[in-house]
Every structure is written in structure tokens, then in C-alpha cells.
């Protein structure tokens, strides 16, 4: 459904992505792991049109989307939850959710609240008063309001306690299982991501250092790929 081929993204002289090939099959949860600076955020920003790749191809449902503006990519059905969620703290939970579905007639309000019960009782609360976990739920909920076909998630576990992270991962798994949503999950928290993903890629210095089914990626191989051993 979504596939990247030989994608290169540069910031000036820095090659943040250096010829990346990644395939995200429809209805699956694919994880991209890697250390700080490996290129994970750049990968999602390149897919969603926030930065244009210098080379390579990104195909979404057979359409070439590399370099298209972010609003067009979003309307095609790619929802992006940025690092730290991008929730607007001054707005209420309800207002944040409404913003996510602004250009959709058929809002997914009740479905989103059913997925994240803690938000249902706090619709009138300012987002700044939420806990870290609730804010991440709101960020994911806001992206779901636009009824995306693919959800791109940038480190949803960042700064969250293990139990809260586990709850978020369960929601992602349920979404995939019940609605067939396709998810590309970028994480430093390899253990959490591998517990719900079918396939995983490990990025190191802008390149895919390791790829395979989630079960096939051993702790040792992960460690080596993170540390750049044998490179
Ligand atoms: N706007 C920018 N200008 C210049 N260099 C950048 C910019 N954004 C990222 N980089 C560099 O590109 C490389 C990849 O960064 P990126 O943020 O994609 O990695 P990451 O894996 O998401 O790391 P993190 O987990 O810290 O967010 C790093 O070397 C980073 O310093």
C-alpha cells in the first residue's frame, strides 16, 4: 500500500535518509526502530510531504506522492501524528478533535471516544491539563478524526510510563485488527513496538540496517544495528 524505494532526504550536507527502501502492506502494523538521529522523524516527514526527498520514489496505492505538498498527501488518506503529538494545549479536548476532522463531513467523533474512554469525560478540559498519556491519546484521536487509511506515528511512547505505553500499543493493535487500519510506527522503544508489529525495519545513519518479521529480529541483531556494528 505504501512503499519507499531508494529515498534520499538531505538537510544541506546532512544525508538524513540515504537510499531507504521500506514496504508497508495494507492492514499491517510496521515498525521503524532506530537510535537518536537515525532518520526516523525525517522518514515520516518525507512521506507526509513536510520535506521533499532529493531522490527516490514513494508510492501510495500506486500513486507517486514523493514531493507532493503535505495537505494533498493528508487528503489522500495519510494521517501523521508528529513527535510529542502536536496537540494544541490552549484548546479543549473537543476542539482539538474537531480540528482533526475539519475538512471531513462525516466525523468519527464517537468512534474516537470509544477507543480512548479517558478522553470522553474530559471533552471540555484544556489539553494542557491532560496527562502525557491522555495527550498522546488525543493526538492519535485527532489524526483518526480525518479517517486516514494509513497512520504515521512518531514515537508515541516518548516520555510515557510503561503501562501507559502498553495501553497505547494495545489501541494501535486493536485498530489494525478491527478496522484494518495500516500503521507505520516509528519508535525508539523497540520492545513495545515489536510486541504489536508484524514487520520491523531498523534505521541507522539514514540507512536500513536490518529488516524482517518482528519475531525474527533478535535482541542481539537489534543491538548491533543500533550500535552500527559491522558497518
Ligand atoms: N531541520 C534539520 N536541519 C538539519 N539537520 C537535521 C534537521 N532535522 C534533522 N536533522 C539531522 O538529520 C538526521 C536525522 O534526524 P531525525 O530527526 O530524522 O532522526 P530521528 O531518528 O528521528 O532522531 P530522534 O529520535 O532524535 O528524533 C540527524 O543527523 C539530524 O541531526
Automatic annotation (TrEMBL):
- SMART domains this protein is in? AAA (SM00382)
UniProtKB keywords: Amino-acid transport, ATP-binding, Nucleotide-binding, Transport
Which Pfam family is one of this chain's hits? Answer: ABC_tran
Recorded GO MF terms: ATP binding
InterPro entries documented for this protein? AAA+_ATPase (IPR003593), ABC_transporter-like_ATP-bd (IPR003439), ABC_transporter-like_CS (IPR017871), BCAA_Transport_ATP-bd_LivF (IPR052156), P-loop_NTPase (IPR027417)
Name the residues that span the membrane: none
Q: Please indicate which superkingdom the organism of origin belongs to.
A: Bacteria
Which parts of the sequence belong to the ABC transporter domain?
2-230
PANTHER family per the UniProt record, alphabetical: HIGH-AFFINITY BRANCHED-CHAIN AMINO ACID TRANSPORT ATP-BINDING PROTEIN LIVF (PTHR43820)
Report the family membership.
Belongs to the ABC transporter superfamily.
What's the name of the protein?
A: High-affinity branched-chain amino acid transport ATP-binding protein LivF
Q: Provide the taxonomic classification.
A: Bacteria, Bacillati, Actinomycetota, Actinomycetes, Pseudonocardiales
